[in-house]
Amino acid sequence: MLILQNKGGVIMKGLRRFISTFLVTVMAVSLLSACEKPAENNSGSSTKQSTAASVKSSAAKSGSTAIDTSKGNNPVAGKKVAYIMIMPSATIFQMWKDSCQKLCDALDVKFDFFFCDGDFNKWQDTIRTCASAGYDGLLVSHGNQDGSYVFLKEILEQYPNLKIVTFDTQFYADGEYKKLEGVTQMFQQDKSLVTVLLDRMVEKYGKGVRLVKVWRGPNYNSPFDRREAGWQEYEKAGKIKTVGEVQPLQDSVDSANTVTAAYLQSLKREDVDGVIAYYDLYGQGVYNAIMENSNFNGSNGNPLPMASVDIDPVDVTNMQTKPEIWTAAGTTDWTLNGEIAMRLLMLEMAGEYDKIYDPATQKKGVDVVEVPGTAIPAESLKKDSTVENLGNIAGETYGNLSYVSEADWMPKDLIHK
Questions:
Q1: What is the residue extent of each domain of the chain?
Q2: Where is the Periplasmic binding protein domain (predicted)?
Q3: Topology adopted by domain 80-188+334-371
Q4: Right CATH number for 190-331 from 3.40.50.720, 3.90.1150.10, 2.40.50.1070, 3.40.50.2300?
Q5: CA angle 133-138-143, nearest 5°?
Q6: Could you tell me the sign of the dihedral formed by the alpha carbons of 203, 209, 213, 219, in that order?
């Protein structure tokens, strides 16, 4: 059921989500026939290939694609790894994937990747199938807070030689924070990704700025829960006031557009100062809804400003086109993020945990790694700005090569020569 929340009440629309439950009665490989990944062929085009087919593939990477690391006695050559993302494919996740691929090619490691359409069951099934198929390492992303710990603990008990690095995945069980021995958890500094945007709103409108937030609600995924911590901190301090909340039904632009458009019909422009979207895909839907409404797009009075977490080419274009509406994005360099994460997995497989580096604390030998966030203001963008060259206008926290972990056989400039 679609729920649009105001301080004055709850607006309920007669929309219902249909949830299909599938009885698992076959082996793990057949379980994943619906969880597909784009697999790049030699010509560079993309095709769809099922997990079952992927895990059976034994084709080795061509030796000509790998950088010579023989002097460092490359301990991961010939290993097989996979990147498993719970969310649907998006530009930033493709940037992550491409970076992982490049590092794996340089180290002669076989690489596969899977996007699971926001379905936690598919995410679990993909991990289970890859583990049973003999992958050496898995980089798993965006597991939910409530179920990831118990599931991954069981996987590691069944496959003790498997190495796992998680991204944007918290471990909780019975209401308590947990650890998994040998698993490195990587995060963006999600709290700061929201607070850098809130700071801009407070600076412009003053303490008590009235805001609407757009997210999927608590316990949907770990990044949103961590971002919500920043929102709650600012609200408790009186820096912001929550006017309302919009929850898309799906991780799509259309869903965010639909629910936001409906919400705006219940809202007066004079009662709100801005909108913060916890995910840029939602931000695109919010932007479209604002642009379609004359009471909020600037046709009748002042336009309603918004900002979002994460960034992609559509966001950059919208910020360049309407900076008075899409005012900023809070993000990290997703190309570098992929490399940072895959380096962590390489070090785990090499048994060199002491070389794992956290840029947030500047410490080594840690099991939690956080990448500092950066605000990208719309007014700072240039005509030729793209997601790929944001480093030209962003602060020093964006795309900082010093954030990566390294080893003699995996120097910082390995794929940056």
A1: 80-188+334-371, 190-331
A2: 87-351
A3: Rossmann fold (3.40.50)
A4: 3.40.50.2300
A5: 115
A6: positive
